[in-house]
Amino acid sequence: MLAPSNQELSLFSGLQKELIQRKTDGLLRQRRLLDSPQAEHIIANDKHFLSFCSNDYLGLANRPELIAAMQKAAGDSGVGSGASNLITGHHRYHDALEKQLAKFVDMPAALLFSTGYMANIGVIGALMGRHDAIFADKLNHACLNEGAYLSRAAFHRFAHNDVIALEKLLKESTAQHKLIAADAVFSMDGDIAPLAEYLALCEQYDAYLYIDDAHGFGVLGERGKGSLSHLNLKSPRIIMMATLGKAAGVAGAFVAGEQVVIDYLIQKANSYVYSTPAPPALSATLSAAVKLIENGDDLRAHLRLLIATFKANLTLKNWQILPSDTAVQPLIVGSNQAALALSEHLQAMGILVPAIRPPTVPVNTARLRISLSAAHSVDDVLRLAKAINDAEKMMIANSATTSLETV
Question: What is the dotted CATH code of the domain comprising 64-294?
């Protein structure tokens, strides 16, 4: 094997320099090695933790019913799809799940994608082009932005939840087709977009409303149907996407809307057309998960209790919990280093909460993203609230700069 040339070494040194700078800036991310099922109590990096990291909001990821469903379906259908959807990869399990999901969310039709990221870039790229315009909340998930860039449509971003700014952009647009794209529940803030106002603007300015309901599906609305049900919204202009690896506890995503929209996406969404679908056994497992969601009112009631209990037991003076009534509870700390220090402090106490830093969130709003799950107990949540309260008191006692670097 030939040794790297000086030119190649120079190329690699640039990568290494950027990694070093990310570490200096408190932005270097690291993976944890999980050795247990996803649950409220996990084993990561050979240590036991009480975890508030997972988006498994209903605690379904390790349910015996779903494990049994996957085992049976793998025996029936094998472990791989083998070909793209438009060749021989579309299994009856896939088809049954699409019909079940469409019925569940009260939409005419649905289409499965392997991930939410693939769904968003596929849908936006298929529906919008050079002569069109996309209008997006500045705090939207990265994949909505990626879809907009790849579509080559004019891309307009407006301040978070700012309906007035959005209307101004729509009024000024001369695009052939328009699409408003927004998270329904924002993944790092936990708040809900003003979707009713967006829909009214779509009616006024003849636009699609594309909703990413990754963090609302299964949790909000009647029987967990999602944010549209929660807000009692229905319109043929609405296209919704929801992921199936969060509240549903498995993997994948689906898009739901009018039949003509789904038919068009089957032909034109590149991330669907040119991908091998997820194994059929996952769809069979998800069919069982959707039934658990549909009958999961007790789980959602317990989750609401945990959210209220957590917020009621915080006694913060410097840090700020954002006004979220969803399972996502963001604790704003400030600097990257302070957020990392707090996360590491809790980790030393056996509590795992991720530190979220730019570019995922705006500069100087580094935070802990606390994810609550119906699998948690009230005692779990009280333990977390006490640990945060005690950490802030320690910070105040040790430093007047709101930094935990000396803790």
Answer: 3.40.640.10
Q: Is 386 a known active-site residue? A: no
Position 3 pLDDT exceeds 70: no
Judge whether residue 48 has pLDDT over 70.
yes
Task: Say how far apart CA 362 and CA 356 lie, in whole Å.
Answer: 10
Concerning whether 156 is annotated as a catalytic residue, the answer is no
Q: What is the per-residue pLDDT across 171-183, written as a single tens digit (0 to 9) for each?
A: 999 999 999 999 9
pLDDT in tens, 147-203: 999 999 999 999 999 999 999 999 999 999 999 999 999 999 999 999 999 999 999
Could you give the CA distance from residue 73 to residue 89 in angstroms, rounded to a whole number? 15
Q: How many helices (H) and strands (E) does the chain have?
A: 14, 14
Which residue among 215, 230, 302, 345 is the active-site one? 215
Alpha-carbon torsion angle 311, 314, 317, 318, nearest 10: -70
What one-character-per-residue DSSP string does 43-62 give?
Answer: EETTEEEEE-----TTS-TT
CA 27 to chain centre: 20
The closest alpha carbon to 122, from 98, 95, 90, 150, belongs to 150
Inter-residue contact 356 to 368 (CB < 8 Å): yes
pLDDT at 6: 67
Q: How confident is the model at residue 14 (pLDDT cuts 50, 70, 90)?
A: confident
Position 404 scores a pLDDT of 47
Cα–Cα distances in angstroms (integers) from residue 177 to residues 51, 129, 181, 205, in the given order: 44, 9, 13, 10
Let me know: does 224 contact 217? Beta carbons within 8 Å.
yes
Q: Which helix (H) or strand (E) holds 376?
A: none
313: which 2 tokens? 């037991």
Total-model pTM: 0.91
246 noted as active-site residue: yes
C-alpha 208/C-alpha 128 separation (Å) is: 10
Q: Which CATH superfamily is domain 26-58+297-398 in?
A: Aspartate Aminotransferase, domain 1 (3.90.1150.10)
Going from the C-alpha of 322 to that of each of 121, 159, 345, 370, 380, the distances in angstroms are 29, 17, 21, 11, 20
CA dist 103 and 110 (Å) reads 9
| Domains in the chain: boundaries | 26-58+297-398, 64-294
Residue from 156, 246, 302, 376 carrying the catalytic annotation: 246
User: One of 187, 227, 283, 335 is an active-site residue; which one?
Assistant: 187
Whether 26-58+297-398 and 64-294 share one fold: the answer is no
Residue 2: predicted pLDDT? 59
